[in-house]
């Protein structure tokens, strides 16, 4: 993935913090994928490292993200796409995260104007929480049903309800995603 990305992570103390990492590991093992990753919603990618290179933390802290209570992640149904990073994911309701997405996208070259960033959020962006990165065919309906049962058995609510159906607030992290996936790690973090 070119450049760097801004990810929205759940609060460290949230109950999903204990549920999602093992789910990602087990899903990767089930599909023979070598890739595991921090559970996150990608707010944007394609950030040129030159914009933050001198001080990633100061740069991230300068972004005007909405307050904690105005960022609400609501998990949705499982889906699969041909795209490597969206091979298997829970779609996230856009309404609760779109302002955070707009702020993040405004950091990408060519999207500094609010209208351009908003247009991208409304048109192109599909917030989601991935469970699988893999270079394999799209997961079919039978496979989705099996994984949905597996996810629900872990307690995750795919209707976005209750404590295991999403979260409020969280942490935004800056991740250099132009490296191999196994090297993806936050270099700056801030609480909402």
Automatic annotation (TrEMBL):
One function term, GO molecular function aspect: 2',3'-cyclic-nucleotide 3'-phosphodiesterase activity
Keyword set, alphabetical order: Signal
An annotated GO BP: cyclic nucleotide metabolic process
Record has Repeat as a keyword: no
InterPro entries: Cyclic-nucl_3Pdiesterase (IPR012386), Cyclic_Pdiesterase (IPR009097)
Stretch forming the signal peptide: 1-18
UniProt KW Lipid biosynthesis keyword: no
Coiled coil: none
PANTHER family: 2',3'-CYCLIC-NUCLEOTIDE 3'-PHOSPHODIESTERASE
Protein name: 2, 3 cyclic phosphodiesterase
Source species of the chain: Trematosphaeria pertusa
């Amino acid at each position: 993935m070119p450049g760097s990305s801004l990810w929205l992570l759940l609060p460290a103390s949230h109950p999903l913090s204990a549920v999602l990492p093992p789910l990602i590991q087990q899903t990767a093992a089930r599909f023979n994928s070598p890739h595991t990753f921090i559970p996150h919603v990608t707010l944007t990618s394609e950030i040129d490292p030159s914009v933050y290179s001198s001080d990633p933390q100061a740069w991230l802290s300068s972004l005007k993200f909405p307050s904690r209570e105005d960022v609400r992640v609501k998990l949705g149904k499982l889906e699969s796409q041909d795209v490597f990073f969206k091979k298997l994911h829970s779609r996230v309701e856009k309404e609760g995260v779109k302002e955070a997405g707009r702020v993040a996208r405004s950091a990408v070259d060519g999207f500094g104007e609010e209208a351009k960033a908003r247009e991208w959020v409304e048109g192109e962006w599909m917030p989601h929480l991935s469970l699988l990165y893999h270079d394999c065919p799209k997961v079919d309906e039978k496979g989705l049903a099996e994984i949905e049962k597996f996810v629900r058995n872990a307690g995750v609510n795919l209707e976005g309800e209750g404590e295991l159906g999403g979260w409020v607030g969280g942490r935004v992290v800056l991740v250099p995603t132009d490296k191999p996936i196994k090297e993806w790690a936050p270099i700056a973090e801030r609480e909402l």
